[in-house]
TrEMBL record:
InterPro entries: Chloroperoxidase, Chloroperoxidase-like_sf. It comes from Recurvomyces mirabilis. This is Heme haloperoxidase family profile domain-containing protein. Residues 78-320 form the Heme haloperoxidase family profile domain. Residues 1-19 form the signal peptide. Pfam families: Peroxidase_2.
Amino acid sequence: MKSTASLAIIGALAPYASAFPAAMMEAAARDSKIMARTEELTRMIEARQAGAGAATAVFEPVNTFNEKAQLVDVSQGSGHEWVAPSGNDLRGPCPGLNAMANHNLLPHDGYATIAQFVDATESVVGMGSGLAIFLAAFGATVDGSGLAWSIGGTPTAAQAGLLPGGNGISGSHNKYESDASPTRPDLYQAGNDYQTVASQFQQLIDASPGSVTMESLTSFRSQRFDTQIANNPYFFNGPFTGVAVQPAAYTFIYRFMANHSAEYPAGYLSYDVIKDWFGITGNSGSYVANQGMERIPDNWYKRAIEYPYDNGYFAADLAAAALLHPKFLSVGGNTGKVNTFTPVDVANLTGGLYNSQTFLQGNNAACFAYQFSAQVKPDVLLGSITTLTNAVNQITGALTCPQLQSIDEAQLKQFPGYTKSPAA
Ligand code: HEM
């Protein structure tokens, strides 16, 4: 018979059951140390988390580290030595994908198929398959040929072949690429949205005393959000780009770039490790950003195989950050001058499905963002967006999202940051 404590933990974890293997849940229910933490954990979940990193305890309940399985070998002779980009090689706003291409874990030219992105993100950093399929299918549908896409700008004909190859994720502002990114500038302020800015990296480090954590990244995100409202007259926090891509740009830093060990099974992100991932050299106070030169650190161990970072985990991180800083969920923007941020009413935007109270509850904010993502207009109109809509339907089903019937895009047209490059 199951104890009250084990029932409590299984009950508490039930909404996340699809996010990690049943065997781990069973193990969690049997482990006495875990049992001792059950009440605390249950209270935390009931309070819908306290702290930006609180989802770690929910989604990684049993400490586990397997040195052999988690090592990503990029040493000499591994076949995945770092090679600098050259010629027409495409590199862009995503340090994770740039690094994988530099190690030939994605095609070195930076133009890859959905299957190649899914395979690389799952096997190299432990992304969950639902999230990997969605991210890769979204890129192909919106910024690529429908089957493949560029991690930088527009691919050459030699790279894309006979199909038009789209504009890549560097040319994807308001579609995939968002404002207030960690180390990249806002397009309408800097004229590009993909180059690493050393001073922004410095701010990230300054906001992260000792090491980089979910807490430090979330408070850095809050700082970046305010800075961009105060400096970019066209700042725009879009329904998908602001609500979902912006948090991913911060949570992915810890969830996918942290190093793992027996001592730190859930990850430890030192300054040296994050510098490699972002292609930064030099020391604090004199950092140098080397464009497109991102790398996977030597002796780097990915997240535990048992705990892929999938949609449920990401939705919990997104909600935990928004509980700390509700402004993150404010869809809206500046109206052409700095410090004029005007939020739209989500009830008007969604035909009354969500409102400012329900938006903060459960997975609603993530549901809303995924539902909006399916509305985006592709660079190349190829007719079929079935792969993307299937991926979205699977996620919104797993997160038990309410059905969105209508979206009133007109609400967004008051924002110059939106009309300059509308997503739909
Ligand atoms: C197929 C999978 C992926 C896709 C489609 C993707 C796409 C993107 C896009 C469009 C951006 C720009 C967002 C913005 O404007 O802030 C971005 C940024 C980012 N991505 Fe990825 N990405 C993927 C996988 C990864 C992985 C595996 C990692 C980590 C290893 C990663 C880490 C990041 C980070 C840290 C940023 C923010 C960069 C900055 O501004 O400092 N991504 N990614």
